[in-house]
Amino acid sequence: MKNSGMTNEVFSQDRSRRLYERRRELDEAEDKYLAPAAARSRDAVRRRPDTRAEAGHRQYFAIDADRILHSMAYTRYIDKTQVFSLIKNDQITHRVLHVQLVSKIARTIGRLLGANQDLIEAIALGHDIGHPPFGHDGEDFLDTLCQENGLGHFVHSVQSVRFLEKIERGGEGWNLSLQVLDGILCHDGEVHAQGLAPEQGKDFARFDRETRAKQRDPSEQLAPMTLEGCIVRQADTISYVGRDIEDAVRLGLLSWEDVPRKCTAVLGVGNGTIVYRLVEDLVAESHGASGVAFSPEVSAALARLKAFNYERIYTNPQIKPHLLQAENMFRTLFGKFLEDVGAGREGSPVFVDFLADMSEEYRKNNSAAEQVRDFVAGLTDERFLELFTEMVLPRGLPRRLS
Fold first, then answer.
1. Does domain 51-319 bear CATH number 1.10.10.10?
2. Per-residue confidence band for 292, with pLDDT thresholds at 50, 70 and 90
């Protein structure tokens, strides 16, 4: 038995060594097939030493993508809505599909431009993890409540970083690389940009300053530090601009004939055509460059299309019939959970579903309002509605009065 154990130990060490060597070979091969501006996996920078990552067979950005994929926050994507909330239609895009589309489109672009696809995937998978229930409307409601409670602005990109660094794993976080976290923080797909060039040379001190700046002023424009971050940011726009129109058409809010001719003449009609032409243009304009850019003609058409979406979809009162009720629900839940934390009511959902799994350090270093913000931001649409129903509607009502 002793000899058998020794043999197994030697075999395990030999296997680990061979896998480590294979990873090193893959790292070295990146110099041959990645573009000069692309990020190298071996250059991933983390806040803390990570012996588990360093000893394994996976390249560093692939580890980050896996960690995000296996996070609790990623699991909750499945029931978070994108644009159309409180609408019963199984064919409408949800947050999880949007994230998958961003990842797929960005990796296609990255493959053609010689970028690091593991880094692209990690940024894409994590970029919207901080979104609260009910999409951007929910973000606006939570932003108001955070400001009223002295927390500054609520910004979903900042919250995405917060979940992955300070909330996951009981407050320990996933120790993701700077390149991934920076791409998530800087992913502003709603802001139009013809071209993006990476701002290299960032470190965690600058990243922390930029995170605070973004929370103080959500309009603060930040540029990713990597080519891959720039690709994901443009892919975010590509993934939703035609898809949102497609969803609106399916709901009967508009038709493709309503889309301005100046847009369709350049980008075509239908989400698939729009995605194809935007990807094709971006790749053709960016090949061999250190950043990414659309051609002037396509960029102008894309800007017009985003303006059309904003007017006809995102601010259309027809898709927000329950907006006031939803805002009141946010205020009611936030206030109730704030009371519960202050009073130490450990039977409250904020304790049972959230704080019970958090470290003592997290509970000590975060105010009651911060804890409630983190809990509410992590709720799915369905769980949010369940909690509101449980809180507001009396339970145990008789089925008959006589």
1. no
2. very high
